[in-house]
Amino acid sequence: MPREPRGRADRGVENGVAQGAQVLVKEAFVAEPYQRVDGIEVPKDVVQTPNGMYRAGKADGLFLMLRDADAAPTEAAWTYATINAEGEVTGLGRLDSCIRCHERAPFDGLYGLSRSGVRGR
Ligand code: HEC
């Protein structure tokens, strides 16, 4: 995916900069295999992967990023957390398992969504 210039990501903030004390929540869902049925159009929520087709099943926990209100705008401003499907906090802190990807994200630890990649824009 080509990198977009700083400020082009759509993360629910229009100025392109992470906000102090911002909390981002990403929902996860169980991936349910989808079998194509002849003569029936593939539903729009089905995604194609190299391993087959899937759609979102039941809710399977949350991924959170919490921003220190006073920190400089770098990846280090973020605290990471995970919450399982039962609502228990299963991880909280500067988690290596999150940092290993997010330190390479284009917007100070955030990936965001490409405006051009969002349906209906
Ligand atoms: C394998 C790389 C990878 C790892 C590991 C990873 N992420 Fe991400 N994360 C991404 C990518 C890529 C996106 C943007 C696409 C998406 O949302 O799926 C993203 C998006 C997010 C977002 C939405 C904000 C944004 O940057 O767009 C949150 C919140 C998030 N991740 C939390 C976490 C947490 C918490 C962990 C650790 C438990 C974690 N991530 C581990 C790659 C990763």
Describe the structure.
With 121 residues, the chain is mainly beta. It has one domain (23-117). 6% of the residues lie in helices and 35% in strands. It has one helix spanning 96-102, and strands spanning 23-34, 47-49, 52-67, 78-83, 89-93. Strands 1, 2, 3, 4 and 5 form a 5-stranded antiparallel β-sheet that branches. The longest helix has 7 residues, at 96-102.
Index terms:
single chain, 121 residues, mainly beta, 5-stranded antiparallel sheet, binds heme C
Short description:
With 121 residues, the chain is mainly beta. It is built from 1 helix and 5 strands. Strands 1, 2, 3, 4 and 5 form a 5-stranded antiparallel beta sheet that branches.
Mean pLDDT: 83
- The amount of beta strand, in percent, is 25-35%
Count of domain modules: 1
Radius of gyration: 17 Å
Segments where pLDDT lies below 50 for 5+ residues? 1-5, 7-16
Bound small-molecule species: heme C
Distance between the termini: 19 Å
Describe the biggest sheet? 5 strands, antiparallel
Query: Oligomeric state of the chains?
Result: single chain
Explain the layout of strands and helices:
Blueprint (H helix, E strand, L loop, with lengths): L22 E12 L12 E3 L2 E16 L10 E6 L5 E5 L2 H7 L19
Antiparallel strand pairs: 1-3, 2-3, 3-4, 4-5
The structure holds heme C.
The site of heme C has 18 residues, from strand 1, strand 3, strand 4 and helix 1.
